[in-house]
Amino acid sequence: MQALSSLPRYEGSDADFFALLTKVVFCTGFTRAVVEKYWSGFEEAFLQFDLDRVAEFDELIIEKLVSRDSHIIKNARKVRATVENARVCLELRERETTLAQFANKVLVQGEKDGSRVLQKTFHLIGESASKVLFTELLIKARMEMETL
Fold this sequence. Notes:
The chain contains nine helices and no strands. It has one domain: Hypothetical protein, domain 2 (Endonuclease III, domain 1, Orthogonal Bundle). It is an all-alpha fold.
């Protein structure tokens, strides 16, 4: 077993974590290329992934995002899950201080257990999506480790 100090650590901001989570939610059922094509629209629609503001979205705002030309993939279920995930992220941030701390607690559990935590924690993160999210967090952590 690796020493904790030698494990890669995720150091992204709360907005970075929320953006990654949202991307994984929307990639489920779509190709990454389709989601990337619309990504600037997601950044605008979800206010640069500002957790506090997105968590306050009500049904009227959700309906506008789904029905108007908001330049995102108009899937009401995924938009609602994104708003709910913002609320979950706020709860996690209250407990952990940052979402990076939460991510690092997940990463040290390894893929099987860490993916299970992600699946149980977030909306529309199933078994496959939880593994993708875990892997993306690990890749970002390793990239950050290499730049040190």
